[in-house]
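If it is no trouble, can you show me the amino acids of a protein and the tokens describing how it folds?
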Amino acid sequence: MALISKKNSERLVLFYYFQLPALLLDLNQRAFKKLSGNRTSACAEPDRPVLRPLRATRMPSTRFKSVRVNIDYFVELNGLYYSVPRALVDEPIELRIKAGTIESPAWRQTGGRPRPQSPPG
């Protein structure tokens, strides 16, 4: 036997979707009984002195991917193959994928590899 009927579950979904945000806003704006202020001001006040404006330029996005070096000294990324030192064969390495380069801590001595703008094909 179901605890909540299908009709009641639809009502709950509508409640959570439409009415709950308004009720939470009202609750957070309600004044404290024994303290001055409300929940919103109590959470905002400690943070305000240390907040700074956002940077004018965006941080470059970086993705990471773990790959294993093949026996032919290459790693594959998006259909392209990049050579790596022979000592890393069968070793897992982590690639750091930026806008213009592909880097790995395993390539310390050789630096990053340039990344093509478009995939082959």
Summary: The chain has a mean pLDDT of 82. The domain at 63-114 is CATH 2.40.50 (OB fold (Dihydrolipoamide Acetyltransferase, E2P)). The two ends are 57 Å apart (CA to CA).
